[in-house]
Amino acid sequence: MNLPALFIDPWRRFRGSDRYAESVRVGLALGGIVAWCLARGDIHAVIPALLGAIACALAETEDHWRSRLGTLLVTLACFAIAAMAVQWLLPTPWLFAASLPLATFALVMLGAASGRYATIAGGTLILSVYTMIGVDAAHGSFTDPWHEPLLLLAGAGWYGVLSLAWSALAPQQALRLALARSFDALADYLDCKAALFAPVHGVDRDALQLQLALRNERVVQALNATRLVLVDRIGNRRPRGTTAARLQLYFMAQDIHERASSTHHPYDALAEALFHSDVLFRCGHLLRLQADGCRARAAALRLRVPFRRSPIAAAALADLHDAVAAMKTQASPPPAEVQHAVDALAHNLEAIQIRLGDATRHAPAVDDGLVLQDPGPQTPSEAWARIRIQFTPRSMHFRHALRLALALLAGYLVLLAVHPRQGYWILLTTLLVCQPTYGATRRLLLERIVGTVLGLVAGWAALKLAPFGLWQMGLIVLTGVGFFATRQRRYALATAFITLFVLLCFNQIGNGYSVMWPRLLDTLIGAAIAALAIYLVLPDWRGRQLGEVLAEALRSDARYLERILAQYASGKQDDLAYRIARRDAHNADAALSGQFAAMLREPDRAPASREALLRFLTAAHLLLGQLSALGAHRQAMPPAALAPVQATGRQVIDALDELADVLSGRPAVPPASSESAFVAPTAEDAASRFVLGQLVRVMTQYARLSEHARELAAH
User: Fold this and answer.
1) Which ranges carry the Integral membrane protein YccS N-terminal domain (predicted)?
2) Of 39, 88, 248, 628, whose CB neighbour count within 10 A is largest?
């Protein structure tokens, strides 16, 4: 056995994990604080300094060091204002009770400007509660009343310096990991897509389409996160060097996503027509190999090793072409329509294989400054405009801000009534559990309670085995790192880590056992307040916004089709306008999938309504797949062939916009145009025939969507 490889490979995998960088930074920050406090003999400074570092880590964004420096200064300024305000207002309960909901509402509404502001606002709220906890834990240990806030800021500043240095020394790490997540999500999507090509009877392809729509949501989220990291690195500059190469990988992932989501023909009809052929089997086999190729791309990015093409996938592509050729020479070949669809499908899979091996093939030009659209506000006035537009009860952001403000006020009043000492965990639990949606709140509520119980049991065992000793300082650092390593995917385990962290911290300045029962009681009270708030205070049931979400999906599809048809006139070009339209269509489809998932978790949803939404979701995703096929096969067409294509496409666009207007207005949906009422012109050349055939299939989906919309309106 190769012992060096035995240790090197796990180390490389650990370094390539998503949580490695943050975990190491947190470990260095917490370890440095503990060492500093021990060296000075100032054990009472441990809790506020550690809490400040954790709050700063929670407010961190994946920015380049230039952007991170500005973000860090804004974060520390917000932290300073919040900590000083809490220190000043906390001794006067009525003034603090009046200020708490106002500050909470303002900070949550600040997050409407952009995701970066939302992260800073959330971290500031957490630090405010940490300040209350630190002041409560100190109970007179410091003669200077401002000593506690300064320790919190010192801990936050220490972590900020480490984060800034890490970003400067490893400027490409966040981008590599974001791209790796995108390719991993693409791999899962391709695997799910391959299941649709099973040439067997009895396959529930509607269920597979639903699963595919949910997988598509993850791909869209991963690509959006990668785009934000790229925008931060590129800015208004022309990308160069490694950043330019990673930009081409992002474009490659986008192109593969468009081609992978393409639908060229109804899958049930393909399975029926090709039941005795191995064409569909070979399509599914090649898709699975391409999924492995995406995972190999992700692994190469994570481990920083060269990407190697798979010869097996190239052989599978050649076998597919041979199978298609053999299908056409059969004694009874399938209908011409099926043959044309299979040709387009094989061409699309070949294009995926080429792009997967060469990131620069068909890559968009990057000569100007408009390589990527920056979603953040460019000026303070634009940021204020984004916030101001959310000041309406119809806004989910406004409702969450008001709900959280009232929930924290209720938590503070309960705190005063139940136990003013050590009661601020009620506010922290309410803050972390109360989410914008009912489903997310319910999930975090249960995981928070389970994690707290596990953490208390582990803390009881740790204090029993060794109630005192320096080893607890090391365990404090390890539990803090464990919290950040697990908080994204295993929230219950993360809660257990942070609960054990708290017990050990308090054991350094008193008796850890004294906070065990208050911690459990406060968690239960805070969770109950969050549950009541999400259910009673402006409940944001997903069904109330359903019509607008459905309408936005159709409008985005119409704009996507407009851009596609324009390029059949000018030729294929992945310019910014086209990529924005494509991304908007996929974002709207992902929002529809998220709407469905959220509605499943809400109470009092009629099964019939869920079934109607499920059918609409699968039909909408299939419609997007048909549009993606048109986008994947873009090419310039002669004027004579282009005229009927554009005229037919205009009818389809108008029909989608009309149905979207009906859905957003929420009246009864009128009967849809039947497929027979929409007859596309005949075409001689293969390109026109393919485009017109796809537009007919889009109108078929339009008719189904109209029917499903009527079902939803009836419920």
Assistant:
1) 72-355
2) 628
